[in-house]
Amino acid sequence: METINLNRRSFxxxxxxxxxxxxxxxxxxxxxxxAQAAETTPEINAWVVIKPDDSVVIRVARSEMGQGTITGxxxxxxxxLECDWSKxxxxxxxxxxxxKRNRVWQSYSTGGSRGIRTSHDYVRRGGxxxxxxxxxxxxxxxxxxVNQLTVNKGVIAHGASGRKVTYGKVAAAAAKLTPPDxxxxxxxxxxxxxxxxxxxxRFGTVDKVTGRQVYGADLKLPGMVNATIMECPVFGxxxxxFDAAKVTGMKGVKQVxxxxxxxxxxxxxxxxxxxxALDALPVEWDFGDNVKVxxxxxxxxxxxxxxxxxxxxxxxxxxxxxxxKGAAKTIDAVYEYPYQNHAPMEPMNATARYTPxxxxxxxxxxxxxxxxxxxxxASGLTADKCEVYKIDLGGGFGRRGAFQDYVKQxxxxxxxxxxxxxxxxxxxxxxxxxxxxxxxxQCKLTGSFDSANNLTxxxxxxxxxxxxxxxxxxxxxxxxxxxxxxxxxxxxxxEHSIGYTFPNLLIDHAMRNPHVPPGFWRGVNINQNAVFxxxxxxxxxxxAGQDPLEFRRKFMAQHPRNLxxxxxxxxxxxxxxxxxxxxxxxxxxxxxFDSFVAAACEISVDSTGNKVKVHRIVAATDPGxxxxxxxxxxxxxGSFVYGLSALFMQECTVKDGRIEQDNFHVYNSMRxxxxxxxxSIIMPTGGPxxxxxxxxxxxxxAPAVLNAYFKATGKRLRSVPLKNQGIELV
Amino acid sequence: xxxxxxxxxxxxMQAAMARITGGANVRRGRVKLQLPPLVExxxxxxxxxxxxxxxxxxxxxxxIHVFTEKNPQPYVINAYLGPRAGRARITTRTRxxxxxxxxxxxxxxxxxxxxxxxxxVVTLSACIGNLV
Lengths: 730, 132
Prior knowledge:
The structure holds two protein chains of two kinds.
Chain A: H1 8-18, H2 30-40, E1 43-45, E2 48-50, E3 56-59, H3 69-81, E4 88-91, H4 95-100, H5 120-142, E5 149-152, E6 155-158, E7 163-166, H6 167-175, H7 205-210, E8 225-231, E9 238-242, E10 253-259, E11 263-268, H8 271-280, E12 283-286, H9 295-305, E13 312-317, H10 320-325, E14 329-337, E15 349-355, E16 358-364, H11 368-379, E17 386-391, H12 405-415, E18 422-425, H13 428-433, E19 441-449, E20 455-464, H14 468-471, H15 473-478, E21 505-511, H16 526-543, H17 548-553, H18 560-573, E22 584-592, E23 595-605, E24 611-622, H19 629-649, E25 654-655, E26 658-659, E27 677-682, H20 698-713, E28 728-729
Parallel strand pairs in A: 3-4, 8-18, 16-17, 20-21, 24-27, 24-28
Antiparallel strand pairs in A: 1-2, 2-3, 5-6, 6-7, 8-11, 9-12, 10-11, 13-21, 14-19, 15-16, 15-18, 19-20, 22-23, 23-24, 25-26
Helix pairs in contact in A: 3-5, 5-6, 11-12, 16-20, 19-20
Chain B: H1 10-21, E1 26-28, E2 31-34, E3 38-39, E4 45-51, E5 61-68, E6 75-80, E7 89-94, E8 100-108, E9 113-122, H2 124-128
Parallel strand pairs in B: 1-9, 3-9
Antiparallel strand pairs in B: 2-4, 4-7, 5-6, 5-8, 8-9
């Protein structure tokens, strides 16, 4: 018999709900539901809860940020669990629970396109183990051997006797059984998948469309106050002083607080009152030396790096110096790619409540455990006193995983108002000014040819910022000062290895780290590396008088999966036949995050060369396995919105040590009318490795369009964004 | 060997501990290593080691050693104390290269060795994957 044992906290929470503390009827975040579920409903194992009415709750460790990962992860579990998909919902176990249960749900990190590819095996085993226990419970009840039973959609049947029972009826008994050894479980053959590989409808879409979805920015808790913050806009600078007296009399203002060494926050009854007061607050900053830095000064340093004698080698074959020395002709080009900001629709936010006995944080986060770690550090409390409740994100793109600055800020503010929930929501301006920016990079490429116009060698010298030197110096130390991530897409091995074999090759990086804080922007370094190498391959093809596709194929004999996606887009766009009049084509390919991707586009350009229309763009991806093809199509299209907006319209420039672009009027984004038609070819070829979906395709759209532009105009574009050259997307 | 290994291993850490203890038996207890179980990026992690000791002339902590399994080299700190320290407690910061177990060993004036260990998960490792 189960006793329902409500602890004090969940009693308070549920009475808050019943008491109508939430005037707008918003749902409380997931963490509360999980706690209540654990107390009243048996979990079969950590991954699967089955209620008496046969409804199934799948526990998900990763975060949903519009990429559809929780639906895909649920598909993986349900395939092995054999329950009824229509009865499935998901919930987030909290990071605190994960810690208490020895990290039974393993990693919470949702980044690097890793959500499905690094957890698919153990979540499937979790589903299979639960199925085995449920069937064993039925077998025990009926006193028959379990191998006489079958199961379909959550109904267990004993063919010989005609008996049937649903999962809900045996769940309590199953929960008491000893779980099987998960490593010994045999998973289903992909050929017999019924749920994986199918375009199941995503969870949460209706709530998003109807406005029921609660984002961190929407959160309302009983007794909550609102805060907004400004950190020193010059990175590395400090907060000197502020004159709180000038604003404490303003409407709704409760507190004006120093937050750490670098920021000041205003707490008020409403966010708008807090913002008005912060805007009016006199603040003195100690900007420090970085105030002298500008985009021009950064560009000068990077330019010098292109010719510097010392650089870190990322990929090497043969002897490039000899190849260049002995070449019949060489061609070279210099490319550049700017700082970019994530700019998610939902600005950074976190809600925290602190007492000396307990610190709780509600936050949209790509890594619940990273948020937990940040709460631990900022609160100074022990782990048993902390908790984080994950909320679905209004966009992450890499800003909300490795960087938990907004969590620390919220806790530091809440610590100064113990017992009161404080919702910290950044303004759009603060979000734009305090990003973790895609790193600035220049690249000089040199190709050497013999007298028969064969490419004999390629030197790709990168000059620019390392992300890991700032974010994870231990890895750079381990690699002898090199940042291996800089070579994504052109690496010598691994999930980002180069898709060509050249007789002589050198890819090296002159590391130049400006003071602007770098971060992981969707796709990370494949964005600029795809522009650099895929545009230069077209330049080389042109110099050799060869078709860009034929030229590439010469170096791809050892890269069959790269060739597979490249050929697929070429065929679909009709590469071997002439384009319609006035239309011009370009293509690109890369391996990224263990997936192989390619794009081919068809554009037209007006007579001035300034207006570009992308009519079609064909994308192919081979991720090994495709869990939800409908979702993959949407991820591909979404990645093109992100990537093409960056190509045409977006850059973050530095002036007086700070980022200039502070809102969307100067950091624009594509509109629906500009969006090309995207044709997706999803071609999983299986094998031992599962590839990612969230990021890979973002990198091939820009070079495909740039290559097509050359076809259309004879003009080579080597600098992003194109608006700086007067070019707009129409 | 020239230079340091790329990253220490648990075996190298055991060897480093053995050099300190001279192979003596190390017992768990009396030492409290305070380290958060989860850290974001491992770049700078605060920790404390507190040893249960009266710190008198005849009964005190001679040294506190802290080791890691996976940092570039296994020693984090060797702190030498005496009765005039008053309290057997050190607090400082370390860098943790990856998720790993950190060990603290205290050497007492009677020649005995006591220890504690904490497993720390570095959440940023998951984000970067196979580079770590």
